[in-house]
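Hey, I'm writing a tutorial for new members on how sequence and structure tokens pair up, and I'd like a real worked example in the thread rather than a made-up one. If someone can provide the structure for the chain below, I'll link this post from the tutorial.
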Amino acid sequence: MTMKIKIADLYDLSHTIAAPLLERFEYPWEALAHIKEFILELGPTLPADEFDNPAEGVWIAKDAKIFDSAYIGSPLIIDHEAEVRHCAFLRCPAIVGKNAVVGNSTELKNVILFDKVQVPHYNYVGDSILGYCSHTGAGAITSNLKSDKSLVSVKDFATGEVVETGIKKFGAMLGDHVEVGCNTVMNPGTIIGSNSNVYPLSRVRGYVPANHIFKDPGNVVEKY
């Protein structure tokens, strides 16, 4: 396999409270079906002097900032100094990392946000994992279901390589330090390697290698 799409290729697990979950698997999408149960396992073990438990299945760090207008679903963990802004919709399950930002009118569903992730403005993030310090510009979304409802494949359009995931709902896996431009749509099965950038207004599908710039589907160039 030439695609670098394993968990070890994409993520530094020292930057997420979800490391014990991800360590169980080889590929990141394999963890998606287990986020809910992991939260319900981990939540009761979190120190009560650091995390509030305001509702069943919900644990929020005492130093996190949650706007009153945000919808807080369950199960959910919000780690230290994270910020959930005006009218965010956390319908869950979700893990929001340390110092992460979930912005105004952003929706999360079945996701892991590593520490310092920013999804700050009008984003939809579903069935996805976003690595350390990754950032999505305003209006960028993950599309997590194909129009024909078929199972999702990960494709490298440069080489023709295809990996079958065996699952129907799969948004995007962003490696550490990925930057996604405004109003980008990441189609089902998108994997973007660490330290890569995506131009605004892009339609991304398949695999983008680490340390590259996605300008358009036929123009993905190495960063120098």
